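quick one, 105 residues, struct below
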Amino acid sequence: FEPWAHRRFLLKRIKWTTRTKEVEVGLCSKAAAANGSNYYAWTHRIIVANSMNTDELLSENEKVLQFLSLHVRDCSAWHYRRYLLQRLGRLKEDRFAEDVANRYG
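---
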């Protein structure tokens, strides 16, 4: 747990770039693959995903589907997938509401 908390501490102090997100997601993937149902790695990945835009979230969703095809019993990965789907659903609703407001508001 402590290494992940330290990473979050450091990440709060830097500017998030696409490369930063890629490194963090890669690290989480390695930790999850090495240790089944690694709750802390997937929780850290949620924090990284909070900084992602829609295209990045869609790409992340594909990566998680690939992971889950190999690790079907990883409950933490399924929880993360649920988070992504909820997040993508909210983003779509926000875009729809914004589009309606721009057209008719």
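The longest helix spans residues 75-104.
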